Each structure stands twice: as structure tokens, then as C-alpha cells.
Amino acid sequence: MATPILNTPQPHNDNSKSILDLLERLADPQKGQGMTAMCAPTRAIAWARVSTDEQNERGLSIPEQLREIRQYAKSKGIEIVAEFTEAVSAYQHRAKRAEFERMIKRARAERVAMILVHDFSRFSRDSVGAKVLVRELRGAGIKVVSLNDPEIDPETVAGVYMEAITFAKNEAYSREVAFHTRKGCRANVQTRDPETGWCYKNGGQPPWGYRSLRLERGQDKRGRPIIKSVWELDETIIAGRPAHEWVRHCLVEQVASGASLAELRDYCNRNGIPARRHKSKLWGLTTWNAILQPSVILQFCGYGVWNARTKEGRKHPPCDWVIVPNAHPALITEDEARAILSARCRAQATASIPSNRGRSLSSDYVLSGGLFQCARCGANMIGFRTSSGEYYVCGSQPYRRGMGCGPGVYVPRRAVETEVCQGMSKLLSMCADPDGFTRQVNTELRRLWEDSTGYADNNKARKEIEQIETKIGNIRRAIEEGLADAQWANSRLRELSAERDVLAAALNAPGPPQLDSGTVMTYRRQTEKLMQCGQPAERKRLLRAWVQEIKLEPETLEVKISYRLPEAVMKGVVAGAGFEPATFGL
To answer: What is the dihedral of CA 152, 154, 160, 162, to 10 degrees?
Structure first.
């Protein structure tokens, strides 16, 4: 009797392991070397960044980073579709990293599988922002791969810790570098040059009236020259006197006497003094406002001032300033500085501040934005708010356009807007006859249609068609009689036929739409309501439909208002009513 065999092992399938390997490789194309032939290459973007020259010397230069990234991609069968580089700090706000933003946008658009970086510090040193961005990219199917950091699996507990530690380490390094940089700057501004006796500066353009003097003071450990800079008086001759004398004259004679920013601007432009920081070399209000800041006035007294502002431009309180006396030649005395600051305090209490509200469509200055213009220079009249009221002024006056187009004229906002609104109300009241007003509106619509088609008279169009038919007939008879140049004749026939077709289409086209009296009067009522209760943007659009132009005549101090009213309406509805373009005297 045969003994039953229990739990007999089945024959081992040698192909099972190879199938599992194949499935594993298909799930991760980077595993194994034989998958390149079976799968398309993984697409990636290469990213390299440096922030200082020293990094180039430590083997972290951009070419070196890209060389290692290319070598890594080649060994893994990865296709690099684009390379991006940047030379700024990775701790900067993303808005200031233009190339980085272009790279991220390209990665999303190209749908690449990964972004290759030399290490995560090249990607970002902002620990919070970096983690958020990496996770956003991962959610979009884009993996940030570092060649020199440990591989991180964010789905594991250890991976979460490693990711946090890696990005925190990079941010801590940036903060440490910033701390030592600020410490070095603080010490530098308090160190005096042994030869000149003046304190060293940390870079940047010196105030007006000074120029930077570069000095070589020894060599560093790599044998490179150490360059220091101090400030000296600017002796450049401008309009017959050195630049620093112009500065002293403007500060002591003009500012201390109560001159406004506009008067200072006009004085410099009138005397041909070029503004250093503007390509037009013309002075503006903002330039003088920056010069008259307390920290800059201290520098004119010979004090070195550091840490008055943050890197983003925000002001630090004076208790955080680093102030060093006798740091460079003084242009004014301390008594003169106190007089200047006192005069500025008095001037700021009653200063006229240009309003930017008139530049937007939503501005409550409803005549701004091109409807109201200066007849002298053609510039738009803009909203201008002062302590005494609200005005319209020529756009060349308060902003950086030299001294303006001439003496400024301030047009009271309320008066001119009231005049325009009253003119529109008068027009609407003259359109009280529904039938007469409707006829005039339809007449104007027909006139506009005829102007657009070019054929106001149908008889004229028919005569032109008859003339073309005569020409076509003459050419055909010439061909029958043996015209030698048949090619020209055929070409001319095609041209004439095309002209005839265009005229026939225009002749047979439907006429302009005609409105009924109910529609016209509804529009009139809505116009009145919109002028009374509408938003500024709506009122502006409505005014442009009814007002042709508003011009300020600075020489005669008059505002001329002409309305966009059809001639037919002017002759018909308002005939004898005494309506004419308004002239508003200031």
C-alpha cells in the first residue's frame, strides 16, 4: 500500500525572483542598471547656487556643482532638461530670487521627476519655507534630490526628524554667518584708518557731497589685498563750485530757512545740479526727503551712523544706531544740524503730500486718469491733497519731472467736479422729450454706421458698381478683339470683381440698430442715478461717454469743458436753449 506523501514541497520556480526584481525595478527606475533600455530616462532639472566669492575657492563654485550633478545624472540614467544657476543668498525671500522662481516654475510646467542639487543648502536655507516648498513639489510629483545629504524618506519617523534637522542646520548656518557679518560691520565702522584718521565704511554710496576713497591696507591670508574705504569731501566742480559747497548751501541757506521739498527740488534743477541717483539727473521730492532724514543729517555733521535701517529698508529706532563722532569730514556744525531738523519738523506739520489716489480707476478723483489735462504741457491732471483741501494739479508738478511745465495751478476739486456734473444734468434735462431725443439718438447711430462703412449714400455705391461693370465689359470686349496681354486682363478682371463684391456687400448690409423711446429714456434715468450714487470707477466711465475733454488753461486760469454731444442733438434738442461748452474760471 502506498504511503501518502504529506506536505510535499512544490518545485521551486527559478523565474519568481527575476519577476519580483523586475516589478521592483519598474516601481523605482533608479534601481538597477538594466532598466534604461526598458524605461524612458527620468527627466530632471539641475540647480546650482553660490552666494560669496569664498565659496568658489572652497570647491563650491557653480561649474563644480554642475559637473557633479551631471556626473550623478549620467550614472543614474537621468536626463537633465534644463540647468539653472543663481548667485544670491539662499536665505533671501523668494521674491528676490528671480532665477529660483523661474526654476520652480519650469519644473512644474515641464512635469520633471526631480530637481538635482549639490546639497540642500544650495536649494534654500529657510527651514520653514524649504520644508513647505519641498512638500508642495513632492505633492506635484517632483522630488528634490541632494547629492551630498543623506537620503530622506519623509514617510518614516526617522525621515521626518532627518528632514527637520537638515533644514534647521542650514538656516542656523545662515544666521550664524549673518551674526558674524553684522559684528564685523559694527567693528569696522568704529575702526579708524591709521593714516587719514577717518573711520572705515561698510560700502554703499556715500551721501551727496561726499565720495568714497578706497585704500589698500595689507593682505589677507590668501595674499589678496585688503581694501578699506573712507569718505572724503566731493570736490567735483558743478556750476562753478564744488559739490560739497552746494550741499552746505542747500542745507544751511535753504532747508534751515524753511524751504519745502518742492522748493529744494526746483532750486537744484534750476541751477543745473545733477541728481546722482536718477537717470534723468533731475531732482524729485523723494530724493530730498531721503537726504533730510535724521540719520543722514548726522552724517553731514561728521558722525558715522550704522544700523539706521534694516536690509528691507525699515527704520530702526535711534537707540539701535551705532554712532561714531568725527568719522569723516563734517559739512555742517551741530548747531546748524539742530536748526535744519527743527525747520523740517515745522515744515512736515504743514507739508503737502502728493496723493497717489488719482492714479487708479477706483480713485474718488473722478476727473483723473486722462479726462482732465493741462493745456500747457498735455500732462494729465492728478489728485493732490494738502492740509487746506483737495485739488487737481498738473502731473508734471508734484512728481519727478523737473520743475514742472511752469508755475503750478491748483484747481479745487469740489468746484470743478460740481461744474462738470451740473453740465451733465443740464444736458439730461434738455433731453426730456422722449420722441425727439429718440430720433436724435437714432440719427446719430446711423451717422456712426455710415462713417464706419464709408458709404453714407446708397446711390453713390450703386453708381460705383455701375462704373466697375462698365470697366469689366470693356476689358472683355478687348479680349474678344484679340488683346495681346491676356494675363494682365485676367488679373485686372479679378481686381474689379473683388471691388464690386465689396460694394455690393456694403450696399446689401443691414442698417444700424434703431432704439425705441423706452430704451432711450431708461438709459437716461440710469445715467442720472449712476452720476448720483455710482462708484468712482462707474462715474469715470460714464463721464468719458458724455465729456469730450477738460482742459486747464494755466495762463488764463480757466478750465474749459467740452461735451461729447452729437451735432444733431446740439442742433435739434438743445437748439435755442443757450447750451455751449463751459468755461470755468478759477
So the answer is: 10
Nearest to 284, CA basis, from 273, 294, 296:
273
Nearest-angstrom CA–CA distance, 264 and 55? 47
Give the residue among 371, 372, 379, 368 at the shortest CA–CA distance from 402.
379
Asked if 397 contacts 411 with a C-beta cutoff of 8 angstroms, the reply is no
Q: What is the pTM of this model?
A: 0.49
- How far apart (Å, rounded) are the C-alpha atoms in residues 127 and 125? 6
In degrees, to the nearest 5, what angle opens at C-alpha 173 toward C-alphas 170 and 175? 110
41/112 Cα distance (integer angstroms): 11
Beta partners for 213? 230
Please determine, for residue 481, whether its predicted confidence score (pLDDT) is greater than 90.
Answer: no
Question: For 325-350, how does the pLDDT look when each residue is reduced to its tens digit (9 = 90+)?
Answer: 999 999 999 999 999 988 888 776 65
Longest dimension (CA), the chain: 135
What confidence category does residue 432 fall into, taking pLDDT thresholds of 50, 70 and 90? low
pLDDT at 283 over 60: yes
CA distance 341 to 326: 20
Distance between CA atoms of 489 and 42, rounded to whole angstroms? Answer: 65
Number of Cβ atoms within 10 Å of the Cβ of 87: 14
Residue 580: Cβ-neighbour burial (10 angstroms; 0-12, 13-18, 19+): exposed
Pairwise CA distance, residues 78 & 91, whole Å: 29
Planar angle of CA 215, 217, 222, nearest 5 degrees? 125
First-to-last C-alpha distance (Å) of the chain: 131
447 has pLDDT over 90: no
Q: How far, in Å, CA of 81 to CA of 98, rounded?
A: 19
Alpha-carbon gap, residue 81 to 122, rounded angstroms: 19
3-state secondary structure of 431: coil
Residue with cell 474678344: 480
Q: Which of 170, 129, 130 is nearest to 148 (CA)?
A: 170
Q: Which of 203, 171, 202 is nearest to 184 (CA)?
A: 202
Contact 64, 148 (CB under 8 A): no
State how far the alpha carbon of 130 is from the alpha carbons of 25, 84, 91, 348, in Å. 30, 18, 10, 44
CB atoms within 10 A of CB 134: 21
DSSP one-letter code for 359:
G
C-alpha cell of 69? 550633478
User: Could you identify the residue written with the cell 532598466?
Assistant: 35
Q: How far is CA 76 from CA 33, 43, 367, in A?
A: 8, 11, 66
DSSP, collapsed to helix, strand or coil, labels residue 62 as helix
| Residue (of 118, 39, 62, 52) closest to 88 by Cα position | 52
